[in-house]
Amino acid sequence: MTAGLIGSAAPLAEAFDLALVDLDGVAYRGPLPIDHAAPSLTGARDRGMRLVFVTNNASREPEDVAAQLTGLDIPTSPDEVMTAAQAAAQVLAARLERGAKVLVVGGSGLRTAVREVGMTIVGSADEAPDAVVQGFAPDLGWKDLAEAAYAVGQGAWFVASNRDLSLPTARGYAPGNGALVGAVVAATGVEPDSAGKPSPRMYELAVERVGGARPLVVGDRLDTDLAGARSGGYVGLHVLTGVSTARDDILAEPHLRPHLIGEDLRALLVAHPEPVAREGWWTSRGVAARVTDGRLELDDAHGDADAEPVDLVRAACAAAWASADAGAPLDPAAVPELAVGSH
To answer: Can the keyword Disulfide bond be found in this entry's annotation (predicted)?
Structure first.
């Protein structure tokens, strides 16, 4: 699959039959809705696109996630939610026998998922667990992390639901599971196996669950959502409503690059132009960009009537990526923040 942007002559909800949609920063932000998310997802369903919400959050039960989405006018059933807790439990089940002892450091969602694959949950390193699985929960404390470190130090297999360093909340970005996992890593020197994004395992499990010949990954983070799409061979749509910005897109290394970029989830309901090279410039709906001597030049004065602000991002990415792939990367200091999306 190309390392650059692709196009779609049809709206994405018609070109793809399944969307694997991230939650925080895409469908909602903490307890709050994100503009256009609910009507856009409803519109995608109306066009025949199925949805599975795929989240690195391992603290909550799928039923709770579905209830929150439904309360935000995005009707969702629990089987349309795939959590990092479920993925972590599947990782455990692939290696351990049923009944194996697992120390769970995390919330109720992780405990339920581990129990459902037949593992025996223990509460202390003194019970000689076969594995430690760690996921985010807001009430985790030093004692929990210490117990995990004791067990890992004694040889238990260490599995993390995900390695996200930050977690979006209504008040801003807070430490995520990766930050807490880092405390156990610092104490033991042992790096965990990770089940969540950027591993593509959750995407694979979601496709296996519901089927889908043409899945599309939709996310807000390049280092998790879109990296997972690239590593799993899925087409990835980056929406600019969460963590990663348009500037991040422009400077992205090949394994982090999205295939498609949209301002928000309305991107599911429209066609996407593929940037084209023309006389030294890369253009998207007439908006143009090029790289000269390591500096990015932008021209949005000659855009077509249907050009949108995100077209400048598409053109800039095409120019920057082509230059970087040819051995002439941009000077990051010369890349401005583009006022597209909400963060």
So the answer is: no
